[in-house]
Each structure stands twice: as C-alpha cells, then as structure tokens.
C-alpha cells in the first residue's frame, strides 16, 4: 500500500527507546543535544519581531514563484555582505531548506539517480533524497574535488556539500569550492552547497560562499532557521550560481516547480529585511555560547586520558572522541541509564567510526556542565 520512499521499519532505535523509558519512569533527563535555538534561553527581541510582522502588509495576495522581490533583494544583499554577487532573479524563497532540497532534487533527478552526500553529515539527507525517489551515495566529508570525482558514476546527478559541515564543523575554502564547481561542471553534475551555519565560525573569519562560483551549475542554500536562529518563522532561500546560460535555464525550470507550491507566507517575506537586522544580536549571543561551551568541554576532558573534543572551526555541535574501549552507542545508553544524561552516538551522523559522541553547543552551561561531568565520570 505504501511507497518505497518511506522506511518499512519505523521502530525507535535503542537510544530513543532508552530515553523514552527513562522519561516514562519520571527521570529528569539532562539533554545535551538540544539544538532548537528558541529553547536554550537566548535573549530574543520578541517585541521587535512582532512589530516587524505587524507592518508586513500581508492582506493582498500577490504570489511570485520566486518570492517577493523585496525579500529576494534582501537575500541578495546578504550574499553581497559575504563577498558574492547574486542577482535578485537568481534567488528563490522556500518555507525551509528541506523544501529547497525537494525543489532542487525535482529539478535535477529522475527516479534511481544518485546524489553524493558527505559523511559524517546530518541524517536528514537520507530521507530527503529517498522521498524524491533518488539514491544517496556517500563520500568522506573532508574529501577534495579529485576524491569526490572518483565517487561519481553514470547515475550521479548532484553533489551536496555542507560548509560548515554539521556536525564536524569542516569548512571548504574558496579554492576548494572553485575546484569542486569546476569538477562538477566537467562531469555535468550539479553542485548544491548548504551554507546554513555560515554565520557561526569560531575565529569569526568569513566563511566563503559557493555563490561566487562561476562554472557549472551551483545552488546555495541558507535560511532564517540558522542565520537568525528563528526556525519558527519558516523561511529559507536558494540562490542559483555558476555559468550564466546554465543558471538561467535552471531558474526557468525552478520557477515552474516553485509555482506549483507557492508555500511561503507573504508576511514573513515582507518582514525579512527587518528580521535580518533583528537576528544580529541573537547570532552574537550564539557565537559567544559556542566558544564558551567548546572551552568548557575541552577543559573537562583533559582529566580523561584518551578523550578529547575534536577540532572544528564552525557550527553548533561538538564531537567528542572517546577513550579506547568505549563505543558510541554503549556510552550513550550508559549515560541515560546511570546518569540521566542524553548525548548522541556518532552513527546518527554516519560516522565511519564508533568511538565518538555528539553534543549540542547551544545548550546553556548550567545544563551542559552536569552533562559533561557525568560523561567524564563514566569515561573514567
């Protein structure tokens, strides 16, 4: 009765079952995985956000498949601030980056075509690609253009790069992005670069954007969920880049696909320029917390021989290498059972190793500190 685009087995994994069991037993869990920015005690300018919507003038229905020009111009200006020139007509607004992926995979893939995705990486990609009747193939997230080229087959249509990567924090340089765009162009493969974490680099260096690539067919994704830490407002965008004639052909087809959905609220589109301004102090709070939490974790782990916080230069997550003899799932289950603490196993992110766990760096220190203390005690 059901299509193969949804999994046959929807049973919870062992960790999810253990967490549910602990909660059912009344255990007050310390959750060190919370990544919802609206649930971690940040100081939001809620009154100003409400005011931005109060004057949004959404009473008239004037749909544009690409999105309202004023909102797309604000997105183009955001790219300009990052050193990339993007025309307003090359911007498409969507309700989420997940929807942007759906549009692009509809544009680029027939059933059975392959999409290359970096591993470790966010587990959502498997679902997004499968739901479009395509197939996920993996490459090592730190692989260069030559190594990724070796993974391309006759069925490959798309290479997805997440920079900064989630959860590793790996960032591709300007040169690396250009090399990747050139390689994809030579093989007739589209490049999608997900840049949702671009505002969260720890040295505060600018993260280069693939929107500056001028060869092949390149698409760049971002959205309010991360850029302004406002996932509840449901607005994202994709920008078309690369070779001009190819880019124009893609945009014409994307407009047709987007016109069948028209999913984005006029209110949030009209409010977007103001929301970008209101997101600045929220981002500043997050950056400070990321740096402070990385320092907290690194200090705590110095007392555990063989454990360390893996290096990263961006992103919201911390990846912890476990000492010899400890596995990711075993550690996560023991933490829930013995200490009521939740962290994530590396296999959630397709890590090729079983000795890392992942925590969110958004968690307030008052919540993260006891969680990390429990991990240290367990590892000792």
Key descriptive features of the protein:
Aspartate Aminotransferase, domain 2, Aspartate Aminotransferase, domain 1, 12 helices, alpha/beta, 380 residues
Could you explain the architecture of this structure?
With 380 residues, this protein is an alpha/beta fold. It has two domains: 14-43 and 279-379, Alpha-Beta Complex (Aspartate Aminotransferase, domain 1); 46-278, Type I PLP-dependent aspartate aminotransferase-like (Major domain) (Aspartate Aminotransferase, domain 2, 3-Layer(aba) Sandwich). The protein has twelve helices and 13 strands. The chain has helices at 14-24, 46-54, 69-81, 97-108, 124-131, 145-151, 174-186, 224-227, 244-259, 266-301, 328-339, 365-379; strands spanning 30-31, 91-94, 114-119, 135-140, 156-162, 190-194, 217-223, 236-242, 308-309, 317-321, 341-342, 344-345, 356-360.
Looking at CATH, the homologous superfamily of the largest domain is: Type I PLP-dependent aspartate aminotransferase-like (Major domain)
Distance between the termini: 51 Å
- For the record, the CATH class of the largest domain is Alpha Beta
**Could you give a short account of the major beta sheet?**
7 strands, mixed
Rg calculated over all Cα atoms: 21 Å
Helical element count? Answer: 12
- Which CATH architecture of the largest domain is right? 3-Layer(aba) Sandwich
- State the strand order across the main sheet: 2-8-7-6-5-3-4
Helix content: 40-55%
């Amino acid at each position: 009765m059901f299509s193969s685009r949804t999994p046959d087995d929807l049973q919870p994994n062992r960790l999810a079952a253990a967490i549910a069991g602990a909660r059912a037993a009344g255990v007050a869990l310390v959750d060190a995985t919370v990544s919802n920015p609206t649930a971690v005690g940040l100081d939001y300018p809620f009154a100003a956000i409400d005011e931005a919507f109060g004057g949004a003038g959404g009473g008239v229905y004037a749909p544009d498949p690409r999105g309202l020009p004023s909102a797309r111009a604000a997105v183009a200006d955001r790219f300009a601030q990052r050193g990339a020139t993007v025309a307003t007509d090359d911007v498409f607004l969507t309700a989420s980056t997940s929807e942007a992926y759906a549009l692009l995979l509809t544009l680029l893939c027939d059933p059975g075509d392959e999409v290359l995705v970096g591993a470790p990486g966010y587990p959502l990609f498997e679902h997004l690609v499968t739901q479009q009747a395509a197939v996920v193939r993996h490459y090592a997230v730190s692989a260069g253009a030559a190594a990724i080229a070796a993974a391309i087959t006759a069925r490959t249509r798309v290479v997805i790069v997440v920079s900064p990567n989630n959860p590793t924090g790996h960032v591709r340089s300007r040169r690396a992005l250009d090399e990747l765009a050139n390689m994809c162009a030579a093989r007739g493969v589209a490049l999608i670069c997900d840049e949702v974490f671009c505002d969260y680099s720890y040295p505060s260096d600018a993260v280069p954007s693939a929107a500056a690539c001028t060869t092949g067919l390149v698409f760049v994704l971002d959205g309010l969920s991360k850029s302004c830490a406002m996932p509840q407002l449901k607005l994202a965008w994709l920008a078309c880049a690369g070779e001009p004639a190819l880019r124009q052909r893609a945009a014409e087809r994307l407009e047709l696909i987007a016109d069948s959905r028209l999913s984005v609220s006029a209110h949030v589109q009209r409010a977007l320029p103001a929301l970008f301004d209101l997101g600045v102090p929220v981002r500043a709070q997050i950056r400070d917390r990321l740096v402070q939490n990385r320092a907290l974790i690194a200090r705590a782990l110095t007392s555990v021989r063989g454990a360390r916080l893996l290096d990263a230069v961006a992103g919201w997550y911390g990846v912890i290498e476990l000492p010899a003899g400890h596995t990711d799932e075993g550690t996560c289950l023991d933490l829930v059972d013995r200490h009521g603490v939740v962290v994530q196993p590396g296999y959630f992110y397709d890590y090729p190793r079983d000795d890392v766990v992942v925590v969110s760096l958004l968690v307030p220190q008052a919540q993260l500190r006891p969680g990390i203390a429990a991990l240290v005690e367990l590892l000792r």
